[in-house]
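Q: What structure does this chain adopt?
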Amino acid sequence: MTTVLNPARTLRIGALDIGVPVVLAPMAGITNTAFRRLCREYGGGLYVSEMITSRALVERNAATMRLIRHHESESPRSIQLYGVDPETIAAAARIIAEEDRADHIDLNFGCPVPKVTRKGGGSALPWKLGLFRDIVEQAVEAAGHIPLTVKMRKGIDADHLTYLDAGRIAEDAGAAAVALHARTASEFYSGQADWSAIGKLKETVTSIPVLGNGDIWSADDALRMMDETGCDGVVVGRGCLGRPWLFGDLAAAFGAGTSPASEASSPRSLSERSETKRTVDATLGFVAQAFRRHAELLVEFFDDEDRGCRDIRKHVAWYFKGYPVGGDLRARLATASSLAEIDDLLGELDHDAPYPGAAAEGQRGRAGTPKRPVLPEGWLDSRDLREVDSCELRDAELDTSGG
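A:
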């Protein structure tokens, strides 16, 4: 049993009262409308879209315009923008504000993947202090009444840390909050997050909320992070993969409701529950129900049953981690092409199989090993933006993939 940290603990970002100090981290190919809706059915918080390329939004790329749509049940609505050009990012923020497409904007300065960093974007960008300042200032101004936040990493590597400078700049530029994934770009998702860096950022940035990200696999981890670092809220990424009810556990831990697994209840009924307690009793039947609901929402999101069922395939291993689900059945779930086929396969499970404990706990999703960040040539030579850097940045803004 986890002790409730503070029954009244909430998170305020600008004018938004989030209610529970929990944010869903943007994850490419994961945090689409379907997954956000599913997580929201289990618990409260701020649920952020997949990363959206600012140039693609400004050019109204069809796939991007679809990604920024929210279901009518989503409130507050949140969009994360990526880009490297201050004017383009400002133009994207202005579209979001003027067309009422979101209630919150987050800027991505934390992505470590080579296709982003090799062009000076993501976690590479805060190294250029002036460019970082220009982006945040212009985006804040363009967003107007919509609160804008910044998500970042510790830096490029241990010798090129940026988070304290970036935190001060974001605070001075008018950001409504900053979030820190407590790893460097070179660490990617490997090893253990350095929560002490979150504490240092909290000591440095004092007038706006500081959120912590990294290695939150359970509600206990969230409570411990807040206790150890003093941060104002947590950002949850890989920990909720195949485990959307983690947001119910978190809500219960913060005194905002009952953990869904403690009642093995339908996601649709959770909003009616208010008793404050938290236990974990996610039977295999409970997990199967969540998996089926996710597939249903994906079919609705894509408006295509085959595509929705293909998209749920990548979630199979995450949902059934540690449970007695044989390899053959897992393989068939990972090739199902209709909801009816998924129903038949889930019917073969032992729905009374209990929660397997440690086998289902711990790290989920990608991890890998440390790697040398891929950067524009000469990027680390100076913290000022030079002409050669500008050319690289212009190339980066040609990306219209939608994130």
